[in-house]
Amino acid sequence: MKILHVGSSSSPKAVDGVNATVWLVAKEQAFLGHQVTLMLDSPPDEAAKILADEAGFQLMHIPANTWRYDPNKLKSLLHTDTPSIVHMHSVYLPKQATLARKIVQNQIPYVITPHGGLDSLRGKAKKFFYDLIAEKRRFSQASAITVVTPKEERTIRAFMPRYQGIIRWVASPFDTSKFSEQIWKGNIEAKRLVFLGRYDVLHKGIDILVEIARLLPDIEFDLYGTEDSKTKKWLEKIRHNCPCNVHFNKPIFGAEKFQVLADASFYIQTSRWEGFPVSIAESMYMGLPCAVSDLPNFAELFHQNDLGLVLPANPTKAAQLLTEAFAQPIQVQHWSKSAQTFAKDNFHPRKVALDYLKIYEDIAA
Predict the structure, then answer these.
(1) Residue 121 above 70 pLDDT?
(2) H runs (alpha helix) in 2-65
(3) Domain match, 128 and 192 both
């Protein structure tokens, strides 16, 4: 099967959940014997070339602006090496809406994976008009739409109530090949909570996290990440009035990251919306208990499968639940084991790649 993935960065090292998914799935689908191509907006970096060469998939650089890909190069790709399926990742990218029209004209089926993007709180007014002129049409013509949490299907149904295509849950993968053998040490008494990710205050709920920390002065909150340009000034105000038990650190990777997770008491994420963050999946895989906000779609998975502590957006109530959790080590150990089992059953890249292939096959049938 000829598979064309669209929506990744030009580097597999770019820190972004959508990007990580595309590169991992492409790698696994190529290993399974399929002809896989990643369509990139900008030239691939050296890491991209090495990975593509090792895994056996192609990189196709087609320049793009906000609204469209280079029409001549796109035409050459679609006509000379026509894909069996196009898999578009993410939402609210006008160039993907333009691409969808070209794909339909060439009678090529396509799949959309929004990665939780329809739940974003940013730019609601602008998105309303863009939905009317472009995004709803792109979704309506998709042969399948995949969601990264079961609850996200309800978002899709509300967005496209008359959609008749396939909607199916496929989990977000993470790179288990680089995963440390290290597991959670069970050190609840350390009273140390860890967050990994961008310091996007609105999206990641950094303001909520800091207010929870303010109410729990005997617990250390270690945050590792990079500043986000959209909320940089907001972050500066938070840091200026930050309680002393909150520590903003540079991002960490590899063995250092796994060591930090292994030594923590909980992983904490207070996002206002999400797909399924890689950092949560990695923590679950290690057995590190997770405390997550009840706002994103993945919180429903935590509720239904008893995977961890689900926190309300109200910092006072959230702080109370965390205090109670630290006093219940048996419950915390249960969350550790149930989350680890769930992660190993669902987040392996090969499992995710096969789930996507089954959808492609169902479309072709």
Answers:
(1) no
(2) 17-31, 46-55
(3) no
